[in-house]
Amino acid sequence: MAGGIREQHGDELSENHEINVTPFIDVMLVLLIIFMVAAPLATVDINVDLPASTAKPAERPDEPLYLTVKEDLSLNIGNDAVGREQLAATLDRVTEGKKDTRVFLRADKAVDYGQFMEVMNLLRDSGYLKIALVGLETLPAPAAPGAPAAMTPAGNVPAAAPAVPPTGGNP
């Protein structure tokens, strides 16, 4: 029959379990167009001709000054042990009285935060305000099994890097 007469009458239609994604695609295309138009408008393009500086770049120290807080809370400047009461005098002797010398402070991870802050306060009270905190660099996985990890020139401790690069900028 040409008209397609159904033999079953009633409200029984077969259920369609497919998700209609056409409205979703339409919304995504509209959002894509909106972001394509809005992105160039969101950037600020201001031409600024910055002046050149004639200042000489700050020199990096040949030998950085490391202050180490060991697990037993003893202090070392470089490789030399120093007492807390002699810290200011020893720093003045090592830095030749230059209070703007950057001090690289490193501590054992077992040191309590309060004890670490006491050492920072000792440095501040001594007049040394440029303090850089030192942590271990994360080393990439070795290329081959059994390959040695990167070591310092001493060859016994993983390389440590300052958290703040040693520049002559503000503390």
Observed structural traits:
171 residues, alpha/beta, six-stranded mixed sheet, 3 helices, 26% helix
> What distance separates the N and C termini?
92 Å
Rounded to an integer, what's the Rg over CA atoms? 33 Å
Helix content: 25-40%
Strand content: 5-15%
Enumerate how many helices there are, as a single number.
3
Q: Indicate the structural class.
A: alpha/beta
What is the residue-mean pLDDT, rounded to a whole number? 75
Segments where pLDDT lies below 50 for 5+ residues?
150-171
The major beta sheet can be summarized as: 6 strands, mixed
Order of helices and strands: HEEEHEHEE
The best one-word shape is elongated
The tally of strands reads 6
Strand order of the largest sheet: 3-2-1-4-5-6
Model description:
- Strands 3-2-1-4-5-6 form a 6-stranded mixed β-sheet, covered by helices on one side.
- The termini are far apart.
- β1 and β2 form a beta hairpin.
- It contains 3 helices and 6 strands, in the order αβββαβαββ.
- The longest helix is centred in the first third of the chain and has 21 residues.
- The C terminus is likely disordered.
- 26% of the residues lie in helices and 15% in strands.
- It is elongated, with a radius of gyration of 33 Å.
- The chain is of the alpha/beta class and 171 residues long.
